[in-house]
Design brief:
224 residues; alpha/beta; Rossmann fold; seven-stranded mixed beta sheet; globular
Amino acid sequence: MNNQIFDQSSNEYDEWLTTHLGNHIHTLELETLFKSITINPGQTFLEIGVGTGNIAKELLNAGAHVTGIDVSKNMLDVAKQKFKHNEIELHHMNADKLLFSDSNFDSTIAFTSLEFMDDLIATIQEMKRVTKKDGQIIVGFLNQGSRWVNMYESEAMKGSVYDYATFYTKDELEKDFSLPITSYQETLFTPPGLLDDCYTTESNTFYQHQNERGGFAVIVFINK
């Protein structure tokens, strides 16, 4: 993973979330995540690619105990500002070489981070290793074949973080994880390129009924 590109964009992501489109997409992603999983009080989570801590914050608010890792020190510095002392554990660490013991976490989550891993298979093996048997492994990902990913891969996005991304389909991730699936849900059906006020819950539902492939999806595996 190119650490420098994420160090350089550590503040830009949170700024994007304050825009109408950024907030809309983030809200849809969170709704899909929490439709897919149930969190018990004290449940331990490891987040792979914690970034600036936005997903970790939501997990924490839902009652989870969260540990986050990231390769970007700048991202981690931004994340630390969002939490009280000892409220969360944050570590500068590579996802394909996790410094945790086997079966250490109830659940492991990667939220739009597997796209940026240099060694996907090694990262998957590490996620499986540190997750307890019958624990959840949750993947939120940018859905290959959707119009959103087509845009991310277009010439118009050259020079962005997406230059460093590899996008996956559900079938590809299912094959690579080789674990039972308990939930699969898509969202972000409204296509890119519309005016800001076109991005609403109603438009998302409308385009879903047009058989549009969702730009974002959450898949939940059970570790065996």
